[in-house]
Amino acid sequence: MTQSPVSRLCLIALCSACLSLLLTAAETTPDSTPKVDFGNEIAPLLVNHCIRCHNPGNEKGDLSLATLQSIKDAGYLTPGKPEESYLLDVVHTSPDTGKAAMPKEGPPLAKEQVALLTRWVKEGAAWPDSLILQEKSKADLSWWSLQPLANAVPPESKAAPDHWQNSPIDQFIFAKLQEKNLKPSLRATKRELIRRATYNLTGLPPSPEEVAAFEKDPAPDAYERLIDRLLDSPRYGEHWGRHWLDVVRFGESNGFERNVIIDNVWPFRDYIIRSFNADKPFDQMVIEHLAGDVIGKNDPDVVVGSTFLVCGPYDNVGNQDPVQAAQIRANTIDDMIRTTGEAFLGLTVGCSRCHNHKFDPIKQQDYYSLYATFAGVRHGSRVIASPEDRQEQLQKRQPLQKEKAELLKQKSEIENAIQKRAQAKAAEYEKEWTREPAKRTGVEESFSPVTAKFVRLTSQGLDTNPRAMTGYRVDEFEVWSAGETPQNVALAKNGGKATGANSRVAGDFAGAYDVGLTIDGKIGACWIAGSPDLTIELAEPQTINRVRFSSDRSGAAMSNYKATFLAEYKLEVSTDGKTWQEVASSRNRKPVSTSHRRKRFYDLEVTVEERSQLNEFNKQIRHVDQQLAAIPNPPSWWVGNHSQVNGPFHIFVGGNPQRKGETVVPASMTTLNKVTEGYKLDANAPQGQRRLELARWIVSKENPLTPRVLANRLWYYHFGTGIVSTPSDFGYMGTKPSHPELLDWLALQVQNNGWRLKDIHKQIMLSETYQQGSTFREDAARIDSDSRLLWRFPPRRLSGEEIRDTLLSVTGKLDLKMGGRGFRLYEYLQDNVATYVPLEQFGPETYRRAVYHQNARAARVDLLTDFDCPDNAFAAPRRNATTTPLQALTLMNHQFTLDLSRFLAERLRQEAGAENVDQQIDRVFQLLYSRSPRSEEQQAARALIAASGLEALCRAMINSNELIYLD
């Protein structure tokens, strides 16, 4: 317990009814002494001195003082019996030490306070049932970001140069500079501007021809026309779509320990790129993100927007423990809540999962209202098609399905006739089946001694599928020599060698599927067959008379694996590996199941003519299946599945789904009740309506957070730092705005512009603030070292994607194909869990823009990872820009950059002439730096080419700072 100001009194969970009760006339004891007033006397005492360390999210000493029941359960209080209440013992001052055990921080409770607590316990410890004590948040509803947007008037300054008085953006910026006695920088050169603007809007470098044309264009609107051209480029959506994919934690694997790939989530990436290119109103995007399946039920281009809810990581292990399953489900919904709050509102709503937010005025009730809103959303795929497309598919499929059904019927009639005849002979057949069925824990076959150099096991049917021949498991295979001292001559240490075609090997599980494990003498890891045969070659010919093999000898894996063992088999031996002799089989064993029994009857009874007829039917059925396969299926996309989950919904005390507190309903957050018209729905309202109402509330005109957060994100991606430098946290733990009036002005521009972004881009980029040079000035840096006040344009390093795309672009290898399935810079290996092995060789299929890379979680992809592309296990509202040795090593030595150095040299020889070294040097400087080389650079480049070749120059320039830094 710690001392805190009286102003920290927090009765967050106290409902109006309880408050009214507490304010009624105090009851009196028979001696007319008023009873202790819990609301006015005890609750403030506990909140001010104790609740910080003893609450459901921070139960120091395993004690929570949030409710009376939690105190009683901890054994700290017995109502009516102060002498049995340990809570009083720890706050009493010891006569021996002169100290109290609690609170540990701050002064002890005053004697009057201890006496008050004691009297309260003696009187029965009255505590309203619905009251939960919680610590008061640092910020309240007066926090700056929760206030309505201010209609800020751009400040005028006579000291501002004329060209700094035309744009409200410049007026706001200049006013702050003037406050700090700072002056703006001179305008950037045309070369700097086109390079800056092209990267900023498209993520790619300008071509030398574009730079030359812009520098030669004397028209006053040349720069404005440049911006218009870049905003109209399809490359704009690819670049700015990537920004938004960072914010919404878009990934193409599920993360967690399995981390399997999701091959059909890419349509959401394409939807984002299309939306940015089309300048779709952002408020429309928000609604589509949260409720696209509701407003666009029959329009795949709208439904796909709701992938936002399920494009984050989720645990799909499928825990059978109901307690753990409930926790996993709570974690899954928590991801949706956190992303929604941070991406759109700039509020860390997730911090209210276990208790009221400690820093922002967000109640735990708000969190669980959102929990109720998303309760019907589950991760997964479903078919996305319009009614017209579905009808067209049906019309094409129906006649073929009818034809197939008729063929299957005729085939079945023949098979039934065979089975009928076989049933009549069942007793005759079955009398030959004298041995027990094959067992996974071990099969042993003994036979007359025979000389063998090779032993072959051939599958003739798996235990749960008599027609399947591959995929069975073998955890040990033994071949025993005949004689008085038999030995397992198949054992690897005795010279045995195992082979099996196409055996399963999966990345870091390669050892677990090595065919050599079948003869290593150990039980545990197993080999999984990719072909029917397992062959053992002995060190030398041996006389053998016994073979034993198993799939799960210990029985430990029996409950976890299904069709993994062969139930029908034959064993053969050979001395030369060419001529084989059968020594044992499963023919005289009892079948392992009814399906195996039917298969045996069929094999014994079918005639040559019937087999021919059945083969013809199979041929016709395959032909129909091919026709059906040629009809494209309606797309199945990773858009989530939605079901109706009705209330009651509860607060989870301490975030624990097993500890249900008071009930909640889908509703807007109380944080903004003073500035927005909230909503509250019935607990059984349609699940789609809940999400739609939330979306409409988020983008309502009265909500100041959404446009502020969006305007700040735009500013961040243009200048490298937001007006609020924590783009997804506008709360107490975030930073305050450097230019609050400018932020509100931009936010109003967003709303007034119909939430379309391209015009806001243009206003920012046409400002003098954006067009400044980036030259460092020591006097200004002493006042504003990180250029937050924008006395110059802040230089930045290119992102990982920009670096990779730039290298492909300047070498002429960039494939600008848009959309569709992504490419991979890793080899994907999957066996229950996934492994991502970075590629060492790169083909043309990998030369697309990095935004189209199949972006799996926790998958290291060399250059992109080294240059700070975030792991999308979490949202990335800001990109780091670190400097590490790996970056230099990757650019210098990675096969990708070595290949591109060679490609760049080939381009130079082709475009500048194979023998004209000076033109090659000029061309490479224009391609990479958008400028001509200086004389000393020309000389150094010529010397390098003479000593080491043109490829060496290309490699050196790819590794230069000027290429990857933007001023």
From TrEMBL:
Gene3D superfamilies for the chain: Galactose-binding domain-like
Against InterPro entries, the record matches this protein to:
Cyt_c-like_dom (IPR009056), Cyt_c-like_dom_sf (IPR036909), Cyt_c_Planctomycete-type (IPR011429), DUF1549 (IPR011444), DUF1553 (IPR022655), FA58C (IPR000421), Galactose-bd-like_sf (IPR008979)
Pfam family, any one = F5_F8_type_C
| Signal peptide start and end residues | 1-25
* The Cytochrome c domain, residue ranges: 34-125
Name one molecular function that GO assigns to this entry: heme binding
Alphabetical keyword list: Coiled coil, Heme, Iron, Metal-binding, Signal
Q: Which residues form the F5/8 type C domain?
A: 534-586
Q: Which ranges of the sequence are coiled-coil?
A: 397-427
Q: Which domain of life is it from?
A: Bacteria
Q: Entry's PANTHER family?
A: CYCLOINULO-OLIGOSACCHARIDE FRUCTANOTRANSFERASE-RELATED (PTHR35889), F-BOX DOMAIN-CONTAINING PROTEIN (PTHR35889:SF3)
Name this polypeptide is given: F5/8 type C domain protein
Give the originating organism: Gimesia algae
